[in-house]
Design goal:
The radius of gyration is 20 Å and the shape is globular. The mean pLDDT is 94. Helix content is 2%, strand content 54%. The chain has one helix and 32 strands. By secondary structure, the chain is mainly β. The two termini are 30 Å apart. The strands form eight sheets. It has a four-stranded antiparallel beta sheet with strand order 1-32-31-30.
């Protein structure tokens, strides 16, 4: 951090917002370096710089667990997910599974082509969506491909998720397809009328996803993974380009040029909208904390649908979307990072 620079968020503003600082950290990045993305995964937060420098921090304390360069600058490193407690990320034409404590590569799978979305794996296989519009399935033990499959439309794959009971992938033609995990046998298929935008979000036996047909969908898998049921679809007031954020009671959806819309998770009904909202930072009891394109933190009441107050977050450059608990993770351009929490 630059000496004498103002705080990331002033103590006065934090007091106004009923927020406290859980921890603060100065990330060891170069002055010429910037932060590209933050991933909130398990009990860690991962920070990736524009130089492909990756830092893993404890969510609870902000202590750095490891920090290392994972690829040359200019090579796209993206799509970080978890398998167990180990991060998976796409590095060019490869998927890397890294050790959670050191960041060292524990497994690497080279597909020989680019990938269109984050990879997935279960105890036996890796599932990689290639730019050839096929899902490539490789054994985890020796990385040998056992089969590949495409959607009927042969459209680009936009999302993959997997466990030991089923694999689900979605496409730019609006298909959501469930497969047996170790062979190309289809369990079921659901068709939206336009592309599935961003990852399909799994919440126990429910699936939530956004489509460019302007609808947010909830599917429930019934009688195990063999069948599915459309529980609801909510028509948003615009084109959807990102996945929803799903908490215990609310689904939050960013709508281009409109803001963030909150949807009742059970009924699929409208709760409120935050014009100019970009993403959910956290949820605490019945309050939602939303970052806006104007550089403010807006606090919404999920019960009444009213805005409670907003706070100047102009120095916040990047943030992590948190649908798990009430902690807010933010950084500025100097590499200063903070974890904030509501004071109830």
């Amino acid at each position: 951090a630059e000496s004498g620079s103002p705080p990331l968020v002033s103590p006065e503003l934090l007091k106004h917002a009923n927020l406290k600082t859980v921890w603060a950290n100065e990330l060891p990045i170069k002055k010429t370096e910037s932060i590209n993305r933050l991933y909130l995964l398990g009990n860690r937060i991962y920070v990736i710089s524009n130089q492909n420098y990756v830092l893993s921090l404890s969510r609870d304390t902000g202590k750095i667990v490891f920090a290392k360069t994972v690829a040359p600058a200019g090579l796209l490193v993206s799509g970080m997910t978890l398998y167990g407690n180990q991060p998976l990320y796409v590095n060019g034409s490869s998927v890397v599974q890294a050790d959670a404590d050191s960041g060292a590569e524990s497994k690497t799978v080279n597909l020989g082509q680019g990938m269109t979305c984050p990879a997935a794996r279960n105890s036996s296989h890796f599932y990689l969506a290639g730019v050839d519009n096929r899902l490539h399935v490789l054994r985890a033990e020796d990385r040998v491909q056992t089969f590949e499959v495409s959607a009927d439309s042969e459209a680009t794959i936009t999302s993959v998720l997997a466990d030991d009971n089923f694999v689900i992938f979605a496409t730019a033609a609006g298909e959501v397809i469930s497969l047996v995990p170790n062979r190309p046998n289809r369990l079921w298929q659901f068709n939206a009328s336009d592309a599935i935008a961003g990852p399909v979000v799994r919440d126990y036996m429910s699936l939530f996803f956004a489509s460019k047909d302007t609808n947010v969908y909830r599917l429930d898998m019934v009688a195990g993974p063999e069948r599915r049921r459309l529980v609801w679809k909510y028509q948003a007031p615009g084109v959807l380009e990102e996945a929803p954020r799903v908490t215990q009671t609310v689904v939050y959806q960013h709508v281009r040029s409109k803001g963030v819309v909150a949807i009742d998770k059970q009924a699929g009904s409208f709760l409120w909208s935050a014009p100019g909202g970009l993403d959910l930072l956290a949820e605490s009891r019945r309050k939602a904390y939303v970052m806006t394109e104007a550089g403010t933190l807006v606090v919404m009441d999920n019960a009444t649908g009213k805005k409670l107050y907003d706070v100047n977050f102009a120095r916040v450059l990047k943030y992590a979307a948190n649908a798990v608990d009430d902690k807010i993770y933010i950084t500025d351009k100097h590499g200063r990072m903070a974890c904030l929490q509501p004071v109830e």
